[in-house]
């Protein structure tokens, strides 16, 4: 999906994951992927196929790792590990290969999942986390203070010029 048309981000939870596998009876070509099904707050569900192809495998692994999957084999999706995980889903209008928006039977644009990302929220850090963060970043504060001192603006000019012409009468 090169250009997202009418993108919208929604909160959801992963409701299922499984391996999708097919084989073309004519050519014998095998293809598959990992299906991630999400359920939105209103109870509707959508699926995203993460392809396992030469071109798609790297993206699939990157997406699954970002969701927290630490597996070593795709066979592990027989036992869904990510079910119940909160995610942020980007929906967009689906387009055909020519870039035309696909329309459903109801006359509305068909919406598909463009991206699935882990839901990232901020929370109050514990004391130990705050100390660790400060230990890591306090050097930046010191460097910024040193930079301000090194580049201090010149003293304010009061209009009186001192120098070799101080003895001139005018």
Taken from the alpha-carbon principal axes, the silhouette is elongated
Order of helices and strands: EEEHEEH
Give the beta-strand count: 5
Q: How many helix segments? A: 2
What is the helical fraction, as a range of percent? 10-25%
Residues in β-strands, percent: 25-35%
Backbone structural class: alpha+beta
The largest beta-sheet arranges its strands as 3-2-1-4-5
The first-to-last residue Cα distance is 77 Å
> Describe the biggest sheet?
5 strands, antiparallel
Point out poorly predicted stretches.
none
The overall pLDDT, averaged over residues, is 81
Q: Evaluate the radius of gyration.
A: 29 Å
Detailed description of the structure:
The chain is α+β, with helices and mostly antiparallel strands and 170 residues long. The protein is 20% helix and 31% strand. The chain contains 2 helices and 5 strands. A 5-stranded antiparallel sheet has the order 3-2-1-4-5, with helices on one face. It starts with a strand and ends in a 20-residue tail after the last helix. The mean pLDDT is 81.
What's this, in brief?
The protein is α+β, with helices and mostly antiparallel strands.
Could you give the topology of this structure?
Layout: E1 5-23, E2 30-40, E3 45-51, H1 57-66, E4 86-93, E5 111-118, H2 127-150
Antiparallel strand pairs: 1-2, 1-4, 2-3, 4-5
């Amino acid at each position: 999906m090169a250009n997202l048309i009418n993108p919208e981000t929604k909160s959801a939870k992963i409701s299922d994951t499984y391996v999708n596998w097919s084989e073309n009876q004519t050519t014998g070509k095998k293809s598959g992927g990992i299906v991630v099904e999400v359920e939105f707050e209103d109870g509707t569900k959508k699926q995203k196929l993460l392809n396992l192809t030469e071109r798609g495998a790297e993206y699939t692994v990157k997406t699954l790792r970002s969701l927290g999957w630490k597996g070593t084999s795709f066979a592990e999706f027989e036992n869904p590990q990510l079910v119940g995980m909160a995610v942020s889903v980007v929906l967009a209008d689906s387009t055909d290969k020519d870039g035309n928006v696909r329309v459903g039977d109801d006359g509305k644009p068909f919406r598909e999942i463009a991206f699935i990302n882990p839901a990232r929220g901020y929370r109050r850090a514990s004391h130990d986390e705050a100390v660790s963060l400060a230990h890591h970043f306090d050097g930046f504060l010191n460097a910024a203070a040193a930079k301000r001192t090194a580049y201090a603006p010149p003293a304010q000019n009061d209009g009186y010029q001192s120098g070799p012409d101080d003895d001139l009468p005018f």
